[in-house]
Amino acid sequence: MTDLFTEEDVVATVTRLTRTQLYQFVDSDLVRPQRDAGRYVFRHVDIARLELLCDLSQDLDLDETALGVVISLIDQLHAARQELAAVAQAIDALPTDLQARLRAEPRRE
Question: pTM of the entire structure?
Answer without folding.
Answer: 0.78
